[in-house]
Amino acid sequence: MLIDLLRHQQRHYARFHRDRNNLRLHLCTVPVFQAGHLMLMLAPALGPFWLAPIGLGMMMLALALQRRGHALEVEAVEPFRGPVNAVLRICFEQWLSFPRFALTGGWRLAFQAPSRK
Fold first, then answer.
1. How buried is 38 (Cβ within 10 angstroms: 0-12 exposed, 13-18 middle, 19+ buried)?
2. If you write DSSP's letter for every residue of 20-85 in order, what string do you get?
3. pLDDT band at 113 (very low <50, low <70, confident <90, very high)
4. Angle between helix 83-92 and helix 2-12 axes, rounded to 10 deg
5. Side-chain half-sphere of 26: how many Cα atoms within 13 Å?
6. Looking at residue 60, what is its pLDDT?
7. Given this model, what pLDDT does residue 1 score?
8. Alpha-carbon span 66 to 29, nearest angstrom
9. Which pLDDT tens digit goes with each residue over 71-109?
């Protein structure tokens, strides 16, 4: 199930990431989400506990901005099928799909493509 979900997300990622402003937002907010996620996970064990709520806030801010970016897209993202699906898709996007999209040139190609609106 997890592999199928990841493959589906990666196969269709470019469909939902074509708007230049959305691409810019993702380029800025994915690292914010990742840093916040690490703070949330590691703060209770390695650092001051108060870093955990800051990390959660960073994650929420990044997702709120990405949601606004996705509203700019011509094609809306597929709706979540439930809370587990939402968490998995969000984590896959932030940690795997977007970094792969950016590092393999998909981000650059989408950014340079003619506007679709």
1. middle
2. HHHHHHHHHHHHHHHHHHHHHHHHHHHS-TTHHHHHHHHHHHHHHHHHHHHTTSSSPPPPPSSHHH
3. confident
4. 60
5. 32
6. 98
7. 81
8. 7
9. 999 999 999 999 999 999 999 999 999 999 999 999 888
Taking Cα atoms as reference points, which of 67, 88, 71 lies closest to residue 8?
88
Tokens of 106: 């998909």
Instruction: Please answer whether residues 113 and 18 qualify as being in contact, where contact means their C-beta atoms are separated by less than 8 angstroms.
Output: yes
Distance CA 69, CA 71 (A): 5
What dihedral do alpha carbons 96, 79, 114, 91 form, nearest 10°? -10
Which of 32, 20, 108, 17 shows the shortest CA–CA distance to 65?
32
Side chain identity, residue 37: H
| Each residue's pLDDT tens digit, 57-76 | 999 999 999 999 999 999 99
| Residue whose structure tokens are 């709706």 | 79
